[in-house]
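Bench notes, bay 3.
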Amino acid sequence: MSLSSGEDHPRAAVATNEDRDPLVAYGSVKRCIDFLVALFLLVILSPLMAVVALALCARNRGHVFERVPLVGRDCTTFNKYSFKMGAGRLRDLPVLFNILKGDVSFVGPRAVSPGELCPECALMLREAPRFPYAGTRLKDFRMDMRQAPDAGRPRELSAREVAARRRNRVRPGLICDWWILERANMAYGHEVLVDSHYVEGYGFRKDVGIVLRALPSIVSHVVFGPDFSVEAAPSDVLSILDIRINNISMRDAVERTIALLDQGEPRQICFVNPQCANIAYVNPEYKAVLHKSHLVLPDGIGMKIAGRILRRHVRQNVNGTDLFPRLCAELKDTGKSLYLLGARPGAAEDVREWILRNYPGTRVAGCRDGYFRPDQEEEVVRAIAESGADVLLVAMGVPSQDLWIGRNLDRLGVKVAMGVGGLFDFYSGRIPRAPLWVREIGMEWFYRVYQEPGRMWKRYFVGNAVFLFHVYKERITGRNAPKHQE
């Protein structure tokens, strides 16, 4: 929230009586629910919490709790309680006292540190290092504005700042849309914008939906402990089954792809999922292509599970299906163009129509299906080179698409070529994508089996078991080379 009055910033989305009424009405009901549930849990868990507190008291010489200053509703600061211990299932149990007090809710945007989202709050904290955290409203704190660099010069807020102020109109919570996306490795956008949408749809139905979608991650947290991959600092490059993985975010992958379009040397980008890893394990030619590729990106929940087993944090699920529309958006009105190669006859043309309909400023230099004979390969390569395309998408399945690109990359005339598997089937409309909630709980693979059981059952049920066998073998032995190379 702003340090000055709402009148100073007309676009600050300051809540009026009219637009706060729905928040207040449901907020009162939600507060009662939070209080009763937190009280019930505290009564049930009090013996366990007492044992933990006594153990910590003995170990830490009387220091049992940690207090971290955070920002709550309307930028009111509070101290979040937790046990003074390392990461574990029991560490955050004292937050139930915060819920009982009304500092936080079970469902709501993440409670942030003072100044994390709002530059003005950060400025104020620099000017007032002894700022008394608990119970103080940042928006009501009176700082001598003459000391501020922009004193007397109101500025226009960015979209993210407006969203940041909007998200603070409700109590922060323990779980939210972003919490779910992060644990599903699908947190591709901006957290404040996702939270802003939560406030816009604020209500009982929305909260119940979040709780149901979060249940798989909550159960995983209770059974297996905290997801270290959310807490740990990830490496930018990691290895899974002797495959080098570029462990970057979706945003970084798109930005790096766009940056390659202004370089001279053609580059190959590959996506790796458990099926790809299984094939690379027994196919040295395909593994060599992966090793030579400029970027190798982790695709699917299976790679996250493998990373967790191997204690290697996989940052995000950077799959081609989600990357494609973001790539189209970045290419819009740039003069750069795509070439679509692969899938069944007519599929590439349907994808081109989807691009022109959704991103009218994005150029498609050409397209054709993937059903051509070996003696037609030279003709296909020549057509792509003559099209002047900058990016080539090849949908021929694994490993054919990546081997084909690796064999012809220097002759295609493109700056970037990537194999995209079944992407054309989704965007041509032949096969519908799994609903978002199915992807959030990591069950998109099961949805694919449901859609095409005859073709997919062996790939997923047998293939996933083989993949996990190899991953656990690597975990136990510490070796990731396949048997025929050992």
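Next record in the batch:
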Amino acid sequence: MHHKNTVIHGLLKAIPRWRFERLVNERRGVYRDRTLSFWNQFGALIYAQLAGVQSLRELVGSLDSQTNLLYHLGMEPVARSTLSDANRDRPASIFAAIFDVLLPQALGERRQEASQVVRLIDSTSVRLSDVLSGWAHYKKGQAGAKLHLVFDPNETCPTYFSITPMRVNDVVEAKKISIEPGVTYVFDRGYYDFGWWAALDEAGCRFVTRFKHNTPLKIVTELPVEEGGQILSDRIGFLPERMAKSRRNPIQQAVREVCVRTDKGKEIRLISNDLDATAAEIAELYRTRWQIELFFKWVKQNLRIKKFLGLSENAVRLQIIVALIAFLLIRMAHHAMGLTISLQDLARRLRTNLMHRKSLTEMLIRPSPPIPSDQFALDLRHG
């Protein structure tokens, strides 16, 4: 009978084993794997993300029950203590390198002019046990980690990430991001730093963000707006020349203020260094920021970054990195098969078919048994 590999085997083909081993050898340093290979650890963590495993005990038990299927993945069952130690001690940079290798494949070969590229910047937090996660403590009785992300809304894909304790300020981490000259950056008030804005402007970048209500603006030009629309005002002016402690403001050139009424009736002030675009375009750019919020929501609902298999700093970093890698694998499969179903629907089907001997295409063929209730069928169609 013709041999068929499992669904997870089809997904992992995106990162060839030889390429994986080369990355490990380049970045492992003095660390040596004796009882558990890096590939086995990686495969186990990917399985945990895609299968929705809730605990280390459940993961080990599930892998142990499928020994014959693990063989073709180059894996074998693993002891709970061995995997726990590996997650605690092995360099997270190896798994971050896997993300970097997969990212160009996920983004594809579509080329865009720098002026058309948009980058959304934001972060999301995950709560951790204050008793077991002292490294992530940020206030009395509370601990947490933070995932900082740069997101491409045109490709619906993250392009950069970093992971820090919750206490690290968003703008501190943003300053570590390599600025892409000429692109547009959109972010919220967590990145309110005139010095960083000036660095973006110097690199030829356009930025759009929220304006704090107490920041004054010396108006020099009032631009016309349509009456009764969502754009309330469109003005050009200058920020204060001096900041706290009489420091010189690094932004001395004119900026744009666009006041917008949201769909919920709230009025917000937007600021940008783009003096030429229409007010509607600036407002629409800021509206795209919600795509990164939706991405965070999707990851938390469909992958595992709320319950952790280990609470050491390295184990938390590994699990979040592997969650992002799992997203890339799902997205690549979705794109390769030209699917019309949602990513969420695909993630659900992967969860129930992960270790079945079938191709990704066969996994999507609906079974012939009786059709479920109309409501359930509707949920499946719309993910």
